[in-house]
Amino acid sequence: MIKTILTEYGLGWAINRLLYSAKLKMLSAVPATENIFEKRVQVKKIDLFNLNVARIRTFLLKLSLEKQYKILAIADKAINGIITGFSSIELDYGNPINWHYSPITREESVRTAKWYRIPDFEVKRGDIKIIWEASRLTHFLYFARAYLITGNVKYYCAFSEQLKHWLKDNPYPYGANYKCGQECTLRMINALIAYTVFNQLTTDEDENNIFLLVEVCYKKVLANFFYAHKCIKNNHTFSEICGLIIGAWCCNDKEGLTKAYGLLDKETEGEFLLDGGYTQYSFNYQRFTLQIFECIYKIGEKTGISISAKSKELLKSSALLMYQAQDITGDVPNYGSNDGALIFPLTVCDYRDFRSVLNTIYALTTGERLYDAGDYDEELLWFGDGKEIPVAEIERKSTSFDMSGFYTLRHDGGFLMTYLQSFKARPSHMDGLHIDLWHKGKNIFCDSGTYSYASELVKEISTTVGHNTAKVTGIEQMNKRGAFLIYDWAECKDVKHAEDSFSGTLISKNGYEHSRKIQRTVQGYKIDDEVRGNGVHCEFYFHTPYEVKSVLNGFEVFDDGKKLCVVKIESGNIEIRKAYRSLYYLRKEEINCVVVKRSMSNKCNLKFEINLN
């Protein structure tokens, strides 16, 4: 395993991880050594966001009363400590909010321990992300929007009181809320945006509290940026660079500001692929990072510095890739890890609607919009300049993204998508040759998702069995250690894509190959699978949130009694199992998994025909 990790992750990564581990051990053994990493900062200004509050208010007041009430309901509950977490569930942190509490396990993290003494994973406490969720202060954005709709000062009062209470209850560097520089960055952004909206109401005490919040959060980012930059290289890297930009500007550190922007361009060129892919291999995290760039674009109005032309082109391509993988509902396949993060929920659109982010990024990078006017336009008002811009007429069509390993086949009313990569960075799910089928706004065959990083369920649904692909009994596509370390990365060969067909082969280092050919037909799709390797049986999976009925030589899929498709199978034993999928973090739903099982002796062949209604 060690040799494989060194080959795939690189010697530099391994050394940096060892150095970081040594740092944590040193801090725990000799706390005084933390002074080595701490930087002195002096915040001098906080007027970072230049928002057109009047235009945002006008937009919000044009929403239907039902949609306005939705914003007000979330804000009103947050006043009382009931936070909408992960865009999916209500979490009651109490009133006043207990910033160190998990409403799921009803356990507290130790608030008197310094951040490096608090473990990432702890059975009794549970998922640390639940504790972090309230302290992101995302609900401050709901306070701001509710105030713009109603003019009611109770939302400002809640912002002011909770900000003061958070600082009192979270002295730096104690407690779980200082474990992560990304969390500190998001906390700064949300508080600064809300402070801008409430500017006509704020007091000297509010101003001092914002100064202090920026100071302690910036100190955290500076002290631990090595980890985000050298050890993980993902959305954390970009969010913490954003934190460096914010902190440097607020401290009038011109040298630090210039350095942060240079680093941002370098990381963008390293983590975004030319065809629009993102090396974290997750559509949710790709959206997360694009939202960070929305913020960076906005604060560029104050810093006077913009990202490079090459970075802009990469972001544009990233938005277009996801646009081509998008359903008419605004949703995309639930590809890769999904931690429920919609870091700036600044529209009334659902968490699964990606239009607001793709539209905003495309507009910021090109001066054109992707969609006609809609509720998703609110996000562009927060991060753009508010000018009227034309719609780019971009057709969705069968597309190959060879560098990223995404392939779509479009049909009248929907599309099929499959993934096949030779990974350039750490994978997150074992989803090679998974098929995601969308028809008339319905995700007929779906990805299982993530649920929670601290759950037993994620250990199942993130592996091969959680995807619509083939699995040799007892063998995974890749190997995994702990929550995130995947090694023995799968590779691909013989990949071909045309307007109506796809073919390619997954090579598992665990001793098998899976070749899949997909042909679009008048009625739907034909799939021809061949699995080669040592194994007794091979299983082929079809996960669907809809009703399933087994019929002779296949199965049928129904939605409320209406037939969606028929799948004809050449041969094999068909079993309908209960399974789970998670579209939202910490929310799961029972679905059906159709399993077609065949015996194999060095090779297994199977053909499917999907006819859509």
Write a compact overview of the structure shown:
With 613 residues, the chain is of the alpha+beta class. It has helices at 2-9, 11-29, 53-61, 65-79, 128-135, 139-150, 154-169, 181-197, 204-232, 235-250, 254-271, 283-303, 309-324, 355-366, 377-383, 457-461, and strands spanning 82-85, 89-92, 101-102, 107-108, 399-401, 406-411, 414-419, 435-439, 442-445, 470-472, 479-481, 485-487, 491-498, 501-508, 512-520, 524-533, 537-544, 547-551, 554-559, 562-569, 573-584, 587-599, 603-612.
Cα gyration radius (Å): 25 Å
Q: Give the N-terminus to C-terminus distance in angstroms.
A: 48 Å
CATH architecture of the largest domain: Distorted Sandwich
How many helices does DSSP assign? 16
- Helix proportion: 25-40%
CATH class of the largest domain: Mainly Beta
Q: pLDDT under 50 segments (min length 5)?
A: none
Q: Structural class, judged by helices and strands? A: alpha+beta
Number of E-type strands: 23
Sheet with the most strands, sense and barrel status: 8 strands, antiparallel
Give the CA-based shape. globular
Beta-strand residue fraction: 15-25%
CATH topology term of the largest domain = Beta-galactosidase, Chain A, domain 5
Instruction: Report mean pLDDT, rounded to a whole number.
Output: 97
Number of domains: 4
User: Biggest sheet: strands side by side, in what order?
Assistant: 13-14-15-16-23-20-19-18
